[in-house]
Amino acid sequence: MEKGLLIVLSGPSGVGKGTVRQELFKDTSLNLAYSISMTTRQPRYNEQDGVDYFFVSQDEFEKKIKNDELLEYAQFVGNYYGTPRSYVEQLLNEGKNVVLEIEVQGALQVMKKCPYALTVFLVPPSFEELEKRIRGRSTEKEEVIQERLAKASKEIATKDEYKYVVVNDEVLLAKEKIAEIIRENLLKKSQ
Fold first, then answer.
1. Could you tell me the CA-to-CA distances from 178 to 40, 96, 99, 120, 137 in Å, in that order?
2. How far apart are CA 136 and CA 144, in angstroms?
3. Segment 10-63, tens digit of pLDDT
4. Per-residue confidence (pLDDT) for residue 96, from 0 to 100
5. Cα–Cα distance between 1 and 12 in angstroms, integer?
């Protein structure tokens, strides 16, 4: 069985990575598998352990860092986020095309460890639209919103590190652009 393609979908917080990913997964021809990230943050009201994230304690996460069990990790707003290495390897070996939906700091780590990865940076149509999306969540205090906006500005400056940049002005259009990029890369890989 041919090993799957590692796909990194990244971009600033609030750009719509999760929404675009959900649309991508409706296209079964892409043979996608979602790499669930691990985090120490508390679940939001609609999130499930083992579906949206693997929710773990800070001690457990730090043990995984020490034992090099993560493909990447980052600390953001006081919480850790990371990708369990063995989980991704298992999916790739099953021939699945594995999607990592991760923040920029983690994506840059994956690029160093896995230069063959297909990397896609999702950008908002404007910074004002990004702020509107972050505020629209109504889940965070003003100081956290300000931290997210400052971080987003720095993250957008890294977009040229990625193989592809896609604007998320309309979810279905962004999904189609990314699906086409995946198909092109799968075709190149099989030749």
1. 29, 17, 11, 8, 25
2. 13
3. 999 889 899 999 999 999 999 999 998 899 999 998 999 988 899 999 999 999
4. 96
5. 35
**Count, residues in the chain:** 191
DSSP 8: E
Q: Which domains does the chain have, with CATH numbers?
A: 6-190 (3.40.50.300)
Q: Cα(168)–Cα(186) distance, rounded to whole angstroms?
A: 23
**pTM assigned to the model:** 0.84
* Token representation of residue 128: 């004002």
85 contact partners, CB below 8 Å, separation of at least 6: 68, 69, 70, 71
Q: Which residues of 1-30 are buried (b: 16+ CB within 10 A; e: fewer)?
A: eeebbbbbbbbbbbbbbeebbebbeeeeeb
Which residue, chain included where needed, has tokens 């297909």? 118
In angstroms, rounded to a whole number, what is the distance separating the alpha carbons of residues 170 and 163?
A: 21
More confident residue, 77 or 39: 39
Q: 83-121: buried (b, 16+ CB within 10 Å) or exposed (e) per residue?
A: bbbebbeebbeeebbbbbbbbbbbbbbbbeebeebbbbb
Q: Which of 35, 10, 9, 36 is nearest to 179 (CA)?
A: 9
Coil, helix or strand for 73? Answer: strand
